Every structure is written in structure tokens, then in C-alpha cells.
Amino acid sequence: MNAPRARAGSLPWPVPAVAGVIGGILLALGQAWGVAALLAGAGLALWHARPVLLALVALGGAAGWASAHAVLTRPNTLTPWFGAQVTVQGEWDGQFLTLRDPPARLTLAPKPTQGPGRLRVSGRLLAPEGRRTPGGFDQAAWFRAQGGLLSVTPGGALVGARVREFQPQGGLRGWFRRGLTTGLTERQGALMQAIELGDRGDISREQFSEGEAVRDAFARAGLAHLMALSGQNVAILTGALILLLTRLGAAPAWRFGLPVGLLGPYLLLVQSSASITRAVLMGGAVLLALALGRGRPDPLGVIALAALACLLLFPLWLTDVGFQLSFLAVLALTQSERVAGLLPGRWPRWLRLGLAATLLAEAGTLPVIAGTFGQVPLVGLPANLLAEGLMAALVPLGFLAGLLGPLALPLNVVNGVLADALLLVARTFGHAPVLNWGQVGVGGFLAYGAAVLAGWLWLLGRVRAPAALGTWLACLLLTTLPGRLHPAREVVFLDVGQGDSTLIRLPHLTVLVDAGGSVGSDYDVGAHTVVPTLRALGVRTLDVLVATHADTDHIEGAASVLRQLPVGEVWIGQRKTDDPVLTAVLLAAQERHVPVREVRRGDQVTSDGASLTVLWPAGTAWSTEDNDNSVALRLESRGWRAAFLGDLPDPAEGTLAVGPLNLLKAAHHGSRHSSSAAFLAQVTPPDTVISVGRNTYGHPHPDVLARLAQAHSRAWRTDQLGTIRWPVP
User: Fold this and answer.
1) What is a single Pfam family found in this protein's UniProt entry (predicted)?
2) pTM score, two decimals?
3) Which of 129, 190, 326, 398 is the most exposed place for a label (fewest CB within 10 A)?
4) Alpha-carbon Rg of the chain, whole angstroms?
């Protein structure tokens, strides 16, 4: 009997090895998907009839588990100081403050307006928080993902941070940063630092106009990747250097070897991330092979080798969005030649490759982009074609300016023009509509995988176009139908910290009552908490946005909601003309041509067997206290009743004649001046939700909690439970 022959086509050994590493990391994280990754690696080894690859899968699994376990079980040196007011000093890189004693890294909130350098800063040290809202930021998981075997995992957040001393960054990085910004405007300099160093701290504060953040414009235009260092930067810089060396007549060993030697220092210069580390490793492997005369290595093998190195040193990068986007994009780009070959041959090669690369990168990263950011840009193709031409000049010229330091003033005249052109592209295409998307579940990922497999087999000529198209349509239908067949009927109490925001969802009516706010902070709760949550829940439009009263913690975020989501109309009670927060909301409504309605007691909207009724204000007289003028609402559906009372105090509560309730949204975050014993005896709610966060007001007050317990009403608190979702019959 003849021995079994290996399958046609050699499988690079890093591929099954990295499948094993991924499986081991997932198992260390307690995720059963790790078994699937191990089985996939073993299946590849058996398919190619190479037992040594099977051993690599097992070895990779053990190594991945051990690496992840070591990072996950490392003690946090900051734990003893959680909750304390502290003063610390260390090196600030724009993202983390690195301390020497104890050895630790932490974030600062708000971020200092000063650039990177040595800081002495005070504030309250808090433990990182997990995800508090659907689609929200999981700070604890992100912190874990930034740690590695040889680097300290960020351990906490310093809130209310106040800079006491600052010393600007010196050395090569300080020189380079001065070269990037000298002679440029603040916005141009912020963009150059993001493009060349990956430092997005300054650009995050830049706005084209009120409510039009520069970073949001880049994201809506599909250009967010330009501000994250990646393979594009490495390719442009090494390509420019290779072209220069070729013109000088350098031998291949020098032509490709010198760029390899410079990649290491480049990685130390810029802000380290998963995407730039992957790019440096891959670029180094390819250039080294060319320098040694070995030709271009197998792309899949190089990608797997880079992933292997990254994950063994930084195992939890596997959960990092930047890592996922970087590797998904580069995997998709391996098919660029095939896709370009399908385009008309009379088109220039650079155009065909550019179109193919952009389409593939967008398709390859689609589920992560949609599920993480809640929206998919629709103009990414033309925006990227224009932006890539500018980047081809801006990246090498900007890098040269950085090397020149303060002497870069003449060169930055050109860089300023290029930066403005790139900003113009982002702003122009950033006004285009986007496709809002909800969270992507297991079914969505499986459907996407089936669609990708069908497309790949079509590219290989294994299936016909009608079969691939039919698969895509079937996957689209299967992922769309569940939401259509079973539309949501629920009330969602969003965790917006010490604030208020409630979403009422019926099949044909979506109402947002307040949108949170952050008193004394520059954090935009509407843009960074409420809107991502709505997108994650699949909310694409709002029929009504209710601004209950002119308190920052209730309505400050409403302006961002109005600017980022279509809204049918805005409901308000008292139209104050001297309140800056309410004025900002009304101005945003005016900009978006959203009608504003002053509601009064008895106003009502009905839909899907439910009614939403205004209980307050009566509108006959206004109090000098904003809380007394709060819009109060009652939702009734098939005999089930809930009330949402804004910040009404207990005297006003007693005049509402609410009637018995199944669910009460406690007024004023559980203030002792609301939810009186008499009112609770009147409405007898078995359940009460309290929207509250960290505060110095004593909310919820112990007296209120005692009154709820005496009334046999169970208290549900957003500060303890995060976002609370309540079904509506």
C-alpha cells in the first residue's frame, strides 16, 4: 500500500501553529471557541497529511494558554490605592501614564491638554470598568489587551486629573514631534502627529465646527484607519527608501537590508500598537527575504508568522479591535490581484489595484467595523482613492519633517497644504450618510463567514457567480429576518453615570427620554455613550426625543444625538431662553430641521397597542426650580404601566394621579426629596429603577431605599447593574 500523499500546495507551518495559539488563548479566556480553533488547526494538518504540523498545533495551544494565563493572573500593583485621592508622576505618552514606583500604567481623565512628557498629576484612582451599555466601551477588557509578557498591563484610571507639573518630552521623540508641528496650525499639527506617530490625543479635541468632530468625520468617511499607524505607513516609508536606494544604484542586499535595519528603531519611535507591530514584522520578513535573495515569501505564511509573534508576546491582543482589523484587512488584501483581474483591462493597473484593495479591505473588516462602531461608511471607496494619493506624499514628507525637527519649517509649508487637503476630503465625505448597524451576534458572523467563503470560491473559479450571489442574498435575508419577525418591545435604562437616559422601543415607535450629561467635564455622553448604545441596539432613527428639563445631567447629550441620528421631533416642557444647555439642544434641532413641541399634561402618542401620555407639566405656571418643571410620562401597554418622572420632587409627584404601576422610574436619581412614602403607597410598584452613578450628592439616599423596601418595591440600580433592559408586554 502506498503512503498517503500530501495535498497539493504546501501549507506554511505558521498557519496551524497560530491556529493552536489562538485556541489556547481563547481557552484561557474561558471561551469555548478555542476548541474550534484547535480543531481547525488540526484539520489543516491532517488535510495536508503532515503529522509534524499536528504537533505544532498542540504546542501552539499550550504556548497560547500559558502566555494568556500569565498576563491574566498578574497582580495589579495599583489595587491598594483604588478609591483614594493620589498624586503620581511618570511619563505621559498621550495614552498612558507610566509610573516607576510602583511599576504601573494608568489612563488620565480628562486627558491633559499638554502633549507627551513627564507629568506630576493628582486625582482619584479608580479600577477600570467593564462594559456598562450595549456597544459601550469595555475599559477593563481594553486594559487587559494592552498588557503583554514583557510589558505592564494598565491597571487603573485617574479621574478628575489635574496636572501639577509638566516637562515636555525630550530626546528623539521630542525632536521628531517638534518637526511635525513647527509652523503648522493646531489642527494640522494634530493630524500630522496622528498620521506619523499614532498619537490621536490632540486630533480627538479638534472640531470642524460645533458638534462636528474631526475624528468623527474621518470615521464617517471610512478614513479612520489613516490615523492609526499600520502597514500603509510602513509600505510608503520603506517604498520611498527603496526607490531612493535603487536610484543610487545600491545592491539588493543594501537596497532591502537597510530598510530592515531601520524598522526596529521606527517601531521604538512611534506609539506601539497591534497594527504597526504586525506591519513591521511582516515588512521585515519580506524585506529580509529579498535582501537574502530568497524572493518574496508566501503571503499567508508571513501573515501567520507575524500573528504568531504578536500573540505569544501580547496574547490578549486577540481581543483588541486594532489587532482584528489589521489582520482581517491584510488577509483580504492577499486577493487584490485576483479582484483587480476582474476589472476592465484598459483601466490603469494602479487604479484597478487601488479599487480592489479598498473593496477587499472594507469587505474583510465589515463585521468588526459594523459590530464595534455601529455604522458602516458608504463612501469609503471614493474617499480612500482621493486620500491615498495625498497620503503617498504626506507620510514620507511628514517623516522627513520629523527628522529635521525645528528645521522643518520650509518643508512644513508643503505639509500644511497636504494636511488641509486631507482634512477637506474627510470633512466633505464625512457629511455623507452612513449605514447604521446593530451588534453582530454569532449568527451574523456565521452568515458573514458563509458569504466570504462563497466569494472566495467564486474568485478561485470553484463556483459560478449565480451560486455565490444566491449565497450572499440568503445570508442577508437570514440576518435581516429575525429583527423583522420579532421587533423589540422594551424599555432600556441606559447607564450614563450620574445622569438619566431611557429608551422606549415599540415596533413602530422609538422614544428617547433624555440623553445624559456630564457636569463639569468635557466628556460628551451623548456622542460616546448614548449614540453607540442606540446603534448597538439597532436603533437607526428616533421618533421622539424628550428633553425633560434644563439640567445638564439629563439633556446635555441630546445635542449630539440630534446631530448623529435622524429624529422625528423633540419634546420639551418649559422653553427656557436663558439656559445654555437647553439652548444648545434647540440649536442642534434647528440645524437638523427637527420640529420642537412644547408638551403639556394630557398630550399622548399611541402605537402598537401602547400609549405614551404626558403627565406633567400642566403649563399654567412655571417654577423657578427646573426640577419642578420636568416632563413626566406614563407608558401603558396591554394592562402594564410604567412611569418616568424626570427630577420631579415629591410634592409634584403626589398631584399626578399616576395610578398603580408595574414599574417606576424613580425621580431625581433616588433623591430623598422624591419617591415619598405617600406616593409609593399610591402607585405600589413592585419594581423601581434608579438611574445613578458615582456622585457626591448621596444618591440614592438611604431614606429612599428604606421607603422602597417598606413598600415592597425591588430597587434596580444602573450603578450596580449597568444598563437595564425591561420587556414591555
Assistant:
1) Competence
2) 0.86
3) 129
4) 28
